[in-house]
């Protein structure tokens, strides 16, 4: 995030990426809010849903052609286990952006030793621990045939649409790849997009273990 501070002349803030950051951690007081906002962080309420206010801001940044860093798992997992089912926030941004974004998967390994979640009485250390090995593995860009995925989602959702599901729908109808998607179709599409990202991240996780 420090590349976003205009006072650091060795960095270009225009090249720094935007990042979705947990509101309850990074924006819990005015000082933190100022620092993280200046560092190009967008506050996200965990559990607030994919159509919360600041997700629209994140979508605007993508429309502007900016880099946006997301954490698709939605929380910190330090266990050495397969990548869990992803939240749909990242998938919804991909689907709603007028131009399909380039998605670059990144895995890091070693933060569980550098900043363990349960270091002292179940809390993190105040500062990162020294002399720890940290690996960052960057994969190939993930390609999405969004028109095909949208068509598949629309076809799959038609088998599940009933009068009750239409009445219970709470999400707005969106446009993706030139088609209108109701809530049922969106759920099918977001599941497919998330599974593709999850598969790529899991491959990188296994690669990081071997490096």
Automatic annotation (TrEMBL):
InterPro entries, alphabetized: Plipid/glycerol_acylTrfase, Tafazzin
Gene Ontology cellular component list: membrane
Protein's UniProt keywords contain DNA repair: no
Annotated GO biological process: phospholipid metabolic process
Keywords of this entry: Acyltransferase, Lipid metabolism, Membrane, Transferase
Cross-referenced SMART domains: PlsC
Span of domain Phospholipid/glycerol acyltransferase: 1-111
Keyword Membrane: yes
Entry GO MF terms: O-acyltransferase activity
Predominant location: membrane
Family note: Belongs to the taffazin family.
Protein name (record): Tafazzin family protein
Gene behind the chain: LOC108828097
């Amino acid at each position: 995030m420090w590349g976003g501070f205009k006072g650091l002349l060795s960095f270009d803030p225009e090249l720094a990426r935007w990042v979705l950051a947990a509101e309850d951690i990074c924006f819990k007081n005015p000082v933190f809010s100022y620092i993280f906002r200046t560092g190009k962080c967008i506050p996200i309420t965990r559990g607030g849903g994919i159509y919360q206010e600041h997700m629209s801001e994140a979508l605007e940044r993508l429309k502007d052609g900016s880099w946006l860093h997301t954490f698709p798992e939605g929380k910190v997992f330090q266990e050495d286990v397969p990548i869990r089912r992803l939240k749909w926030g990242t998938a919804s941004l991909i689907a709603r952006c007028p131009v399909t974004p380039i998605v670059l998967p990144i895995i890091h390994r070693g933060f569980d030793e550098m900043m363990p979640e349960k270091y002292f009485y179940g809390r993190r250390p105040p500062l990162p621990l020294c002399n720890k090995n940290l690996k960052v593995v960057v994969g190939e860009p993930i390609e999405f045939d969004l028109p095909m995925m949208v068509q598949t989602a629309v076809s799959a959702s038609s088998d599940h649409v009933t009068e009750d599901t239409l009445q219970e729908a709470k999400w707005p109808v969106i446009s993706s790849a030139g088609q209108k998607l109701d809530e049922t179709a969106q759920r099918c599409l977001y599941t497919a997009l998330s599974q593709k990202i999850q598969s790529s991240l899991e491959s990188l996780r296994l690669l990081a273990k071997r490096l």
